[in-house]
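Question: does this match?
>
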Amino acid sequence: GVTRKLLERVPDGQFDWKPHAKSMTLGRLAGHLAELPHWVNITITQDSFDMATPRPAGYQPPATREAVLALFDEKAAAARAALAGRGDGELMAPWTLLQGKQTLFTMPRASVLRTFVFNHMVHHRGQLSVYLRMHDVPLPSMYGPSADEAI
């Protein structure tokens, strides 16, 4: 899909680059986009998630395009498997995002998937396309042809 096409074009050796002091690095943005499908599993298999939960010990963000792609492929395959066969009852069940003791929101799982997960991915794909353009990397067609590629 489109996300993988963008991640395939992330230039190795540029992972520390960022367009502005307040921006994520290219490597952090690519890694974040690659791991976002994991939120499908979290949303489907848990009733809530606490953003204050630390990352697992030993977590290392991907440092190469190959590692980004491997992470994305792993998380995307697991997300597809988690969604397979889910019924309306499961998808309409409430899900809550917490920050410590504070509830950030509670919504049906289907709404969480659409807004918090998929829209989040689309947002970061847009960011990544700008980062890639700033490196003169040809962009794939995403919602029609790009300036570099037909559909």
The mean pLDDT is 95. The first strand starts at residue 48 and ends at 50.
